[in-house]
Prior knowledge:
The structure holds three protein chains of three kinds.
Chain A: E1 2-13, E2 16-27, E3 31-35, H1 42-49, E4 57-62, E5 65-66, H2 70-77, E6 80-83, H3 94-104, H4 109-122, H5 138-151, E7 156-160, H6 168-185, E8 188-192, H7 196-202, E9 205-210, E10 213-218, H8 220-225, H9 230-236, E11 239-242, H10 248-253, E12 262-265, E13 270-273, E14 283-293, E15 296-303, E16 306-313, E17 325-330, E18 335-338
Parallel strand pairs in A: 3-8, 3-9, 6-7, 7-8
Antiparallel strand pairs in A: 1-2, 1-4, 4-5, 9-10, 11-12, 12-18, 13-17, 14-15, 14-17, 15-16
Helix pairs in contact in A: 3-4, 3-5, 4-5
Chain B: H1 2-16, H2 20-53, H3 59-69, H4 74-85, H5 100-124, H6 128-136, H7 141-151, H8 153-168, H9 172-178, H10 188-198, H11 201-231
Helix pairs in contact in B: 1-11, 2-5, 2-8, 3-5, 4-5, 4-9, 5-8, 5-9, 8-11, 10-11
Chain C: H1 2-25, E1 30-36, H2 37-42, H3 44-56, E2 59-65, H4 67-75, E3 81-84, H5 87-95, E4 99-113, H6 128-138, E5 142-144, H7 150-160, E6 173-175, H8 180-190, E7 193-197, H9 198-205, E8 212-214, E9 221-229, H10 239-250, H11 252-260, H12 263-266, E10 272-273, E11 278-279
Parallel strand pairs in C: 1-2, 1-3, 5-6, 5-7
Antiparallel strand pairs in C: 3-9, 4-7, 4-8, 4-9, 4-10, 4-11
Amino acid sequence: MNALTFENISVYRGKRQVLSIPHLEIAVGERLALLGPNGSGKSTLLLVGALLLDSAEGSMTLFDQPISKGKLKILQRRNFATVLQEPALLDMTVERNIDTVLKIHRISHLERQNRIQDWLSRLGIQHLAKAMPHQLSGGEAQRVAIARAFSTQPRILFLDEPFSSLDPRTRAELSGDLRGLLDSEAVTTLLVTHDLNESALFSDRVAIMDDGKIAAIGSLNQIDRCPSTPAVSDFLGHTLIEHNEIPEFFLKTFSFPDSSECISVNPEGIKIVAGSTESTSVNSATIHSIQALNGSARLILNFEGILLVSKIPLEDLTNYEIGSIVNFIIDPNSITFFGQNKTLAH
Amino acid sequence: MNLLLEAVQEAWSLISSGDREIFDITFRTLLFAGTSTIISLIIGLPLGIGLALMHFPGRSWLVSLSNAGTGMPPVVAGLVVSILLWRSGPLGSLGLIYSPLAIIIAQVVIATPLIIAITVAAVMSLNPIIHLQIRAMGANQIQYIFLIAREARLPLLVAVMAGFGAVVSEVGASLMVGGNLSGETRVLTTAAVLEVSKGRFGTALAYGLILIFFVIIIAAILTSLQQRSQRK
Amino acid sequence: MKYLFKSILLFLLLFSVSNILSSCYSNNSTLLLATTTSTENSGLLDVLVPIFEEESGIHIKVIAVGSGAALRMGSRGDVDVLLVHSEDAEKLFMGKGFGFDRHSVMYNDFILVGPVEDPAGIDGIDDVIEALDKIAQSGSKFISRGDASGTHVREKLLWSYTKIQSPLDKDWYIESGQGMGATLTITKETGSYTLSDRATWLAMMNGDLLPLLMEGDAEMLNRYHVITVNPELHRAVNINGAKQFRDFLLKPSIQKLIGEYGIKKYGQSLFTPNAEIELR
């Protein structure tokens, strides 16, 4: 049985189509991450899934039941819990916030008390039970939002970039705590995020969205090795090089199909080596800039005017200086060619 | 100046003597104003919330209309309601003219646009994400309205006070639709006008002072509530 | 706290509902009487109404407006019975068939009042037209009701007999647009003259009188009539109640009461009953 299926879903903002999903299935117990740049439609897809936004056409099923209209739809909505980018707490104490949503779900008084105590302590905030929202830090408030969500024992949990407004340390903490809770509760979850690492930690399956469509879906490793569109490559941080800008060296060394319009190179495939440039496969480039992100680091290399991205371990970061020259080789398997319609031409 | 002092003295002695009629009139004034304010809230709150949140063609017209309604002269409301309720008017068969209900109807007509306009402003000033979250919590329409009203309760309190203040101090409409009938539809304002026309300034001032007293109490309550929320 | 609020709410709503029910129910046991503000201000109705309600079991609602407004309301059938004092307008009213019948009830008179100093020198003059001429000549301020009431109509009629015929364009002539009581107040405050009915003057002034300077001219009689509204004007006209009220006003015991009204309070009676004549 599928928790949620989408068939032919489309959403328009004015004349512009902002979401187009021909088909998507989310299995019961699955954790799916939605990735993509801003404006790619991932939040829109989440809202449609949570029955908070209507699709102009198509249909959805919820646990194999069709979606209802009107009052019954609201009842179906009660199968879900949603955590948004901001905690969106009501102007009342923390425990009343949770109490309110439980009352909406018609949970009995005694049971409400139990759940409030339970979830506040599982999120480590039982001491904040009587605090008001404006007294809480960003992280604490978001913990309340998460506690509020779990307390309703949802069958599907929707999370829309829940940690994006938090500082990195709080984000890491909360993210870890959330994963722990998801592991123990085993609830179907849809997570929207723009953080690749987070998505990898969080789920086995990710969907990368671009321009309102799902451009790639599968495990992050699969997609990384074989990105389906240039946009996906770009999002993953691969180097994208247009046809007319491809350096001589590449053209000589690798065989490109004639129809390739652009190529993308996975940063893992550009390796810094100590060897000399005598070997034909070794080249040198100048370090243009250095980036550290998400547990690893990147060297941006300037090779004949093209910027190539190379992934290096975080601990090696300090070995390099901007402006110095390094040697590198490219793993041919890390190159993806895209044809005329920007589709895969491997 | 002498006249004023005499009038104040007379007013004070009337009030402190616990004159039965003054008490009746005061009670009636508060009852009418209270009832109409509550009815205006029941009508105006959901309408204001709906107007603030829903998007439909002609919405901005309706918002402008309700804003304009706050400036409507009460006398005009009174005249329109009278014309409707007179026997010769379309609703004449209900026999409502010159009755307490007629006054309440006129007062509701006066207070509702005020409450709608303030509610719209109050709801629009809420963080937009709250609306999404409340719906996500699975609230139905009524629960939604209650929760939004609760979130915006401070500015809505202003709406209530404004509505109550407008109707309790109104005289033209109350006179026209109520007829200022002794023991039935005479309220503080219309009684004061009658006393002035009879030249009995002391009594008129007594009514006026009581009215001012209640207006001050309302203002005090509102201010203290605002202070409380800020101190938090 | 929440419960208190909810119970107040409930109470108020119940009250309103019971009000609706009683209002809709009110038809035959209610009588709508339109009369003038000066009649109401005299206090006579405060005495007569309770007696009538007691005797007949009918609840009267007394709507006090100007004569003009009262007659207009009568012409639409918005009220059941009129007690007014505007002869010409009344005759017009009856002529158009708006009234069922019309009877004399009582009369009082108009007087000219003004400042103690009497700059126009009208004190003691017998002829009201002559007095008005003197006021016009002296340019002393004169306050008119200006509200199409019986008093105002009479006042305009009297001016029409004077040399200037109409004082409307004169700057010493001011229209208050209000009832007799308010007009008397303005007159006193501004040191002006005005034409008032005796009853209101007595009832309002209460010892602090604007001096009565001129009275007694036959042109200054103010006659009150009770007119029952023609039931054909509107379904809801309570013609039976109206007839009962008319009979009440005209019966000897009440006529006697009318004649005595004012003596205890002001030392003189305010009205003279004259119910013998039926008029068309």
